[in-house]
Amino acid sequence: MTARTVTGRAGRGAGRDERRLGWWLCAPAGLVMLLVTGWPVAYSVLLSLQRYDLRFPHRRAWIGPENYATVLTSVFWWDAVGVTALVTVVSVAIELVLGMAIALVMYRTLVARGLVRAAVLIPYGIVTVAAAYGWKYAWTPGTGWLAGFLPSGSAPLTERWPALGIIVVAEVWKTTPFMSLLLMAGLALVPEDTLKAAAMDGASAWQRFRLVVLPLMAPTISAALLFRILDAVRIFDDIYVLTNGAQRTSSVSIIAYHNLISGLNLGIGSTMSVLVFLGVAVVPLVFVKVFGASAPGQDRGR
Amino acid sequence: MRTGPATPGPGTRGTQGVHRARGARGVGVAKLAPPLCGVLLCGVLAGCGSGASGAPAVDLYNAPQQHLARIVQRCNRIADGAYRIRLNTLPRGADDQREQLVRRLAAGDAGLDVLGLDVTWTAELAEAGWIREWTGADAASARRGVLAAPLGTALWHGRLYAAPYTTNVQLLWYRSDLIPSPPRTWAGLMAESARLARAGRPAYGEVTGAQYEGLVVWFNSLVASAGGSVLTPDGEHVALGAPALAGLRVMRAFARSRAADPSLSNTREDDARLAVEAGRAAYEINWPFVFASMAANRPELAARFRWAPYPGLTGTGRSPLGGANFAVSRYSRHPRAAFRAALCLRDPESQRVAAVEDGLPPATGAVYDAPGMAEAYPMRQAIMDALRTAAPRPKTPTYQNVSTVTAVTLSPPRSVDPPRTLRTLRSLIGDALESKGVLP
């Protein structure tokens, strides 16, 4: 390969060699990344094709896609899928609206701007598990300040719909600041001149928001939504602390954890993990389809 | 577990005593242990001793138990350098305890030596190869004097995998001012409640109906009282059948009767206890800890607070069986010391301390005659009687799954639809036994 370089076509040959050298230099890092991220995924797939229950070490066997049939025909699994979808859609929708409102307030605040922004961000700075325990105790009859507002004898965390409501509230409380922070960055992208021009043309505040601000913010909004949806789909800590999946409030991550760790069933648990992985992978694809050019990662120059 | 299900309350863990049978209270195994240990240990431990003192450290992992430290101290004193037990306390919930143990055992963690096990975990840990079989002299010591029911919970396929420590049974606890003569059946209890309700007196009967282990225990005892069982004796197949149908009918009838507290589907052991102490309920099905609690909290009611055998379908029923045992981890580096330590931790004196100080009934029969027992356990004859017929929970390595799906299927009890619920149970428990069960 050095022959060419030597024979004079230095420019091109050197460039190609340099690029090849670059690949070689990157290779160790790439290999490590592949091992660290690729192998666990591949191993999960392998486990998902086996009957592998730690309680029956002698009955381990390859059973093909049987675990997938078991999981996909289980009512518990579809319950968890439903809960995950519900929590994701409801909490992200509320967060978007609330986050936008807070972003506007933060952006337009004239006094104590730094203080307002810091105050809004506090929930996001609290460790999720710690916050979840706060909610749990708040709703526990007898000890909680929130439970005190309920009729006596009610234990909201032990009933399905109230528990799901509390999970959504905890999620919204926790992540709305993140949403509003991202959206505020988007607001900064909207040129003040454009808004003034729209105002001159007689656009009302609502029209300016809907027809000028929102379209200009579309890339930011879609990025924020993508982040939040990916986050919400793998919801674990809030549910783990608040109900631990009781009364059919398991999310897909919780049910996978229960089968893998409590159930010691590596086959079924890995099958669920693979399905969650596929589900999470689908979300960005759907996003690109729905949001098209303004989806994050797309080349806007098209 | 996770799910509210499968978290036995304060009283579920029992103890099974192994040691010393009647009579010879003085010369326990524990007293013979130190010299014997010394001889056995010196070879094994030469290379792997730990701790500055040279005594191998034995890490005990147990559920929270207030006076366990006292038991540990006594054993360390008796051991006289042959071993040194370090007490590690597991989380409060039974599911969390199990989870920590199995997670570490699955990883081959050598930091666990003696494990305090709920009676329902024996099969699972034994089948997975995580706990050692008890053999020879240790097994003989562990079995000696232990009542049959607690001993059964430490066996898997006829082999001994744990040393019985405490045991427990549920009884019917009632107020004699409201119920002059306690009925022997669930139907009788429902009739009493109806009568009390008509008279405008406290009429509720408290049962553990929340979606957790307490509901499973209730169902298991109903099936056993009807003459059946959840699984076949080998633990490989679903039994259920007609007795289960009869049990489900009783459960549904009770949950829809005047006896059912409106919060039945949220009631755990402690809620049941509080409802009776508050004067809202006339009786409860519960573990014996409620007796001491009543005496402490409502002394004026305590004089009229009586116990009777667990109710059945046609006559006296078969009570749930609780308790806890000590096992030795497969990955222990000091198995000899661990076996010796486990034996001391559940010798008659240790069991007596656990019984009198912590309210955990002993597994060894002779301990019921020990000093202090008559005052702490005026109902001890009723406990012994109930232990003769107590219904153990299904023995299978997949008990966690069986229990969880059972609790989910039966909750709430008033929605039980006997034939349909039975079909669901059959299929879900069957799947669980095949490792095909999905946990919710």
Short description:
Chain B: Residues 1-20 are annotated as: Disordered. The complex is a heterodimer of chains A (302) and B (440). Chain A has a domain at 79-265: Orthogonal Bundle (MetI-like fold), CATH 1.10.3720.10.
Task: Looking at this protein, list some descriptive labels.
A: mainly alpha; MetI-like fold; two-stranded antiparallel sheet; 12 helices; 72% helix; disordered N terminus; B: alpha/beta; D-Maltodextrin-Binding Protein, domain 2; 2 domains; five-stranded mixed sheet; four-stranded mixed sheet; 43% helix; globular; maltose binding (chain B)
Q: Based on DSSP secondary structure assignment, what is the total number of beta strands of chain A? A: 2
Mean pLDDT of chain A: 87
CATH class assignment of one domain in chain A: Mainly Alpha
The low-confidence runs of chain A, each spanning 5 or more residues with pLDDT under 50, are 1-8
CATH topology of the largest domain in chain B: D-Maltodextrin-Binding Protein, domain 2
The coarse overall form of chain A would be flat
Runs of chain B in which pLDDT lies below 50 for 5 or more consecutive residues are: 1-52
- Largest interface: chains, residues each: A-B, 34 and 32 residues
* Biggest sheet record of chain B: 5 strands, mixed
Count of individual domains of chain B: 2
Structural class of chain B: alpha/beta
CATH-level-4 superfamily name of the largest domain in chain B: Periplasmic binding protein-like II
Span between termini of chain B: 10 Å
Q: What's the CATH H-level superfamily name of one domain in chain A?
A: MetI-like
The strands making up the biggest β-sheet of chain A line up spatially as 1-2
Global outline of chain B: globular
Write down the Rg of chain A: 25 Å
